[in-house]
Specification:
The chain has eight helices and ten strands. The radius of gyration is 19 Å and the shape is globular.
Amino acid sequence: MSTPLVSLHGVSKAFGGVHAVEDVSLAVHAGEVLALLGHNGAGKSTLMKMLAGAYPLDAGEVRIEGRPVQIRTPADAQALGVETIYQTLALADNLDAVANLFLGRELLTRYATLDDYAMEAAARAVFRRLNPNFHNLRVPVRSLSGGQRQVVAISRAVHFNARVLIMDEPCAALGPEETRMVYELVRTLKSQGVGIILISHDMPDVFALSDRLCVMKNGRTVGTYRTAEVDEDAVLGMIIAGRQPAGVAPCVRMGG
């Protein structure tokens, strides 16, 4: 079994006396989409914020390709190839796609001025890699569609060498055509070996995109299963009642 790109082992987090996450383990492999499901308050956002460096771990361990690592800040996570695409996308609406791609990490000339030529050339290359039909590089992103804004946010992560991508409700409030665009982006990333953790409440997204799914309830994992081996009723039973599906073996795949 291959070594996961990233794995969490016995991870816990408490806020005061409230155990938001308790003894959770999961793993994501190269070219895999793992869907993370659960009601609001189930612990999935807290778990991902620990992986993204927003919260410190109280207990447990994070490994990157089998190697234990310390993730104390978002910069630590990014340096290890873990990027997060939040539902809000964190884009500067008044700036264009190129400026958003390099926001906070701008390229400079030897004279310490912005290297607009190098940034645009790099932006065109990464947009071409993910979506050859994206050409709106120099218009403010506020004028882009929801799907196009996702292209910008995902391209920013990929350009800075994301190997594990946490996507929070990437298709929320998108129309059918924009959702199809995001689906194609996710499948392109999969084919390029990126591991994706998909946080979603939308069952069509989960069943269309994920290879495995992990359900959380009350800060713990109910179970992790191959998506093809469960149906929507079984998943809802896990989310609502914390009930594992009968006759289906859990699939942990922690690997090396």
